[in-house]
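User: I'm curious whether this sequence folds into something compact or stays loose and floppy. Could you predict its structure so I can see for myself?
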Amino acid sequence: MTASTQVPMVRTRAAAAETYLRVLHALMLRDMRTRFGGSHIGYAVVVFWPVVHTTLLVVIFVVRKMPPPVGDSAVLFVASGAVPFLMFQYISREVMKALVMNKPLTYYPQVKLVDVVFARILVEIVTGFLGLMIVFAALALLHVNPVPANPTLAMVGYLAAIVLGIGMGTINVAIVSFFPGWLMGYTLITMLMYMASGVFFLPNFLPDQYYEIMRWSPAVQIIECVRSGYYPELDVHIDYVYCYMWGLSCLAIGLGLERAVIRKQN
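Assistant: Here's the prediction. I'll summarize afterward.
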């Protein structure tokens, strides 16, 4: 291949990449405008929801006079468990809704379902991190130090929550394509997971036989990973490979189902 033929190929690829980025940008803007009523207030409500959620849990702790199982701040204990789980829950649920809300867009030749899903994933990641920053700011206003003792360990847990949310979300896209009722079913399942994943308590305080069963849940280990960043004295063993392999395996399965199931339906 001569240099004269390589230049047009490079330009063609650059033009294709630019077109793809424009499509992705347009999908993200449309997603945010349609979901949040085309207003900054609608988007702010979603971003502030983790703060409201955490506040309600703290109020429950205070009203019932429940001391935190570790540390001296109920606010920090609740936030370190609720925020990573909510990041996983929101991403996995909202990615699933991308198919339901934006399927007509896939009739355009420039737009593929995987593009719609990827745009939703990017929007949810940005929303999740904005919510995390607001929670940190709220903790600082309450004179609670939001900086973990081990920032690297806490960030590993937050990233694992995002990866798991993306992986579960892609599988949900495939399931909801032929079973729309899964949207409600998955919401109920994540509510049960929320109650049983250690947001309100420390699973390692349970008897060993129950704790070993709970550790099979990646959500439990992700919460423990984040909490270990704030409470180094926690006596827990986290399998980081297991946490990330769960998310990556779900992502591979979801993409395979998208190619094998959804494309055949279309």
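Summary: Residues 3-265 form one domain. The radius of gyration is 21 Å.
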